[in-house]
Amino acid sequence: MSAPRGPAWLVWLETTRLAEVMRREPLLFPLVEVVHILGFVLLVGAAVMFDLRLLGLSRRLPVVELARHLLPWARGGLAVVVPSGVLLFLPQALHLGTSPVFGLKLALIVLAGLNSLLFHRGVFRSVQTWNTETVAPPAARVAAGVSLVLWTGVITCGRMLAYL
């Protein structure tokens, strides 16, 4: 069997003991994949529900209360997605590490995080003036629309990785 070729750090990741275990154990990769998908459901599901509220659905629900309820679920989903994603990356580090689709997925995740950060440090600070029964300000609606597009892109890239 020939040694893997590619960038040294990707070769190192792909030849780690953990990567070998992920490749060798027949059920481990699909089980970690299920955990990864469930984490994404928590993360993106919470983000989508919040985004839809910002776009005007369920205006009777206070934005502040919805944020308090959904943000811990999103954080929990992120806490599941990151380590499971690393485990899924290891056995195919050379392929994924050089894939433009994987790079795009990571870039979209970073942009989604930045979008959320800008929202919470910006327009969300004035939420008490548009908390209930009011149309969210344009900046909040734009952030929600951008979030929906970015997360849809992340999911699309994730699925495309299996076929490209």
How does the major sheet shape up?
none
Q: State the helix count.
A: 7
The count of β-strands is 0
* pLDDT < 50 runs, ≥5 residues: none
- Strand portion: under 5%
Shape: elongated
Query: Average pLDDT, to the nearest integer?
Result: 95
- Through-space gap between termini: 24 Å
Give the helix/strand class: mainly alpha
Order of helix and strand elements from N to C terminus? HHHHHHH
Radius of gyration: 19 Å
Nutshell version of this structure?
With 164 residues, the protein is mostly helical. It has seven helices and no strands.
Key features?
164 residues; mainly alpha; 7 helices; elongated
Structure description:
It is a single chain. By secondary structure, this protein is mainly alpha-helical. The chain is built from seven helices and no strands.
Write the layout of secondary structure elements.
Blueprint: H1 8-14, H2 17-24, H3 28-54, H4 63-89, H5 93-97, H6 100-121, H7 138-160
